[in-house]
Amino acid sequence: MTKVRAAITGVGGYVPDYILTNEELSHMVDTSDEWITQRVGIKERRILKEKGKATSDLAANAIRQLLEKTHTAPEEIDLLVVPTITADMAFPSAANLAGYKAGLINAFNFDLNAACSGFIYGIELVSRLVESGSYKKAILVGADMMSSITDYTDRTTCPLFGDAAAAVLIEPTTEEYGVMDRLIGYDGSGKEFLYMKAGGSLRPPSHESIDNKEHFVYQEGKTVFKFAVAKMSDISVEIMKRNNIGDNEHVWLVPHQANLRIIEAVAKRMGIKREQVLINIHRYGNTTAATIPLCFWDFEKKLKKGDDVILTSFGAGFTWGSIYLKWAYDTN
Description:
By secondary structure, the chain is of the alpha/beta class. The chain folds into 2 domains: about 5-175, 3-Layer(aba) Sandwich (Peroxisomal Thiolase, Chain A, domain 1); about 180-325, Thiolase/Chalcone synthase (Peroxisomal Thiolase, Chain A, domain 1), CATH 3.40.47. It contains 10 helices and 13 strands. The chain has helices at about 20-25, 35-40, 55-70, 95-100, 120-130, 205-210, 220-240, 260-270, 280-285, 290-300; strands spanning about 5-15, 20, 45, 80-85, 110, 140-145, 165-175, 180-185, 195, 220, 250-255, 310-315, 320-325. A 5-stranded mixed beta sheet has the order 1-7-6-4-5, sandwiched between helices. Strands 8-13-12-11 form a 4-stranded mixed beta sheet, sandwiched between helices. The chain has a two-stranded antiparallel sheet with strand order 2-3. A hairpin with a 3-residue loop joins strand 12 and strand 13. Helix 7 (about 220-240) packs parallel to helix 8 (about 260-270).
């Protein structure tokens, strides 16, 4: 029996026009371009400033570009999954709204919340659904408007985050391309180190929660850094070993873009050369679920059919994972 795999067959993306630079941030909080660059490697990030716009608009724009690039009609899409932690509202879902705005009239749709590991978790889920034969054309779009939950008076977190969305088209194939292997991990005890305290059922919004600034991202940086390096490295090295992936020019590492020092430490542990690591954190910052597909969008022309691509991420919860895929197309 012929094995069916799920393959990425197209990429689309969207970033807002407004660029928030380190220089501008230095006038908002006690920081500097040098301090931010040395610690996390970020120079600028995009911020959605348009009134009345939210995460679903970022996602819808990425979807529209993806459909245009792949010459796909909106009605052909039968599945839409949006990994996000910043949906427009508690309900309806960002996927529901983005699908409507992009004209996806036949797409079963829902959101997925795994924080910065959202796209990795999404690949795992969507690839399984496509491989089952239930869906033929699926869109996975990582989208987050992190500016909506960032405290711009907190010098430790406000330089980190940006707004963006990037989408991939996932289709079945019987060729030896697409998702080849996956490893997913989680540990709920990490909740105390990276979270947003209020706004959920445990602590609903109140005057007190607003006054205490509990509706913003909180992170214990040193602990998250240590866990991120360890988990991303361990799981990526394991996926390389069990698939006999060596250090060659056709291997690419696409890591979650949270901190340049984390990326460099993971690549070193994996034995991957710097020039084979896709990095754009300096341009966009941490866009949470959007970082990995945003790298696809930025570096699509570098990826060649048959290349080995390793994705890895770490996020709140804790959540982490690694996906090994063979790139399924040449851009031209």
